[in-house]
């Protein structure tokens, strides 16, 4: 039995908390597209295909000091298009060895076809995340140097994806 878009969204959130790049990537069609419409320095604009999604999140969740404990306050919006679901969420957890509290918010719009994600539009609080990690100055410097246009610096992208994707 195929998963509904709402069920896929719930599994997406579970993969985030579990930091399972495989569980996340396995929700996607082989040729899926994952975009980040709110461009931010040090972060890619798009990921193309299941394996690129898997690779970024594996690196991100392996490198990040952020540990999500839970996704909560999820508000799901069903669309007129039966393939589309949008979910607002808040995640809480800790950062670093000292366990500083962490909070992030985001909004995901998923297009699910035949039980697999074919397109994701991922609107996340990248600046709040970098601030919580103590890296906001890195983002500002990158923006001033034009990294927002070229999407450079995958290390920053990996850390940010870990926390907010």
Question: What's a concise summary of this model?
Answer:
By secondary structure, the chain is α+β, with helices and mostly antiparallel strands.
Number of strands: 6
Low-confidence stretches: 148-165
The largest beta-sheet arranges its strands as 2-1-6-5-4-3
**In percent terms, what proportion of residues is strand?**
35-45%
Helix content: 25-40%
Q: Write down the secondary-structure element order.
A: HHEEHEEEEHHHH
Provide the structure class: alpha+beta
Radius of gyration equals: 15 Å
What characterizes the major β-sheet? 6 strands, mixed
Question: What is the tally of helical segments?
Answer: 7
Overall morphology: globular
Task: Give the integer mean of the pLDDT values.
Answer: 86
Which oligomeric form is depicted? Answer: single chain
Measured distance between first and last alpha carbons: 27 Å
What report would you give on this structure?
This protein is an alpha+beta fold and 165 residues long. It is built from 7 helices and 6 strands, in the order ααββαββββαααα. The chain has helices at 5-18, 21-25, 50-63, 126-132, 136-144, 147-150, 154-164, and strands spanning 28-35, 46-48, 66-78, 84-95, 100-113, 116-124. Strands 2-1-6-5-4-3 form a 6-stranded mixed beta sheet. A hairpin with a 5-residue loop joins strand 3 (66-78) and strand 4. Helix 3 crosses helix 7 (154-164) and helix 4 packs across helix 5 (136-144). The longest helix has 14 residues, at 5-18. The model is unreliable at 148-165 (pLDDT under 50).
């Amino acid at each position: 039995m195929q998963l509904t878009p709402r069920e896929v969204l719930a599994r997406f959130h579970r993969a985030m908390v579990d930091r399972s790049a495989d569980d996340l990537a396995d929700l996607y069609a082989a040729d899926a597209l994952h975009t980040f419409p709110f461009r931010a320095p040090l972060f890619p604009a798009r990921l193309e295909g299941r394996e690129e999604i898997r690779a970024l999140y594996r690196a991100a969740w392996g490198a990040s000091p952020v540990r999500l404990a839970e996704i909560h306050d999820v508000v799901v919006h069903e669309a007129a298009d039966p393939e589309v679901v949008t979910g607002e969420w808040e995640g809480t957890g800790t950062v670093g060895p000292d366990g500083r509290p962490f909070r992030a918010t985001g909004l995901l719009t998923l297009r699910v076809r035949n039980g697999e994600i074919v397109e994701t539009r991922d609107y996340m609080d990248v600046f709040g995340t970098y601030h919580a990690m103590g890296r906001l100055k890195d983002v500002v410097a990158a923006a001033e140097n034009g990294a927002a246009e070229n999407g450079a610096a995958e290390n920053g992208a990996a850390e940010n994806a870990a926390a907010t994707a």
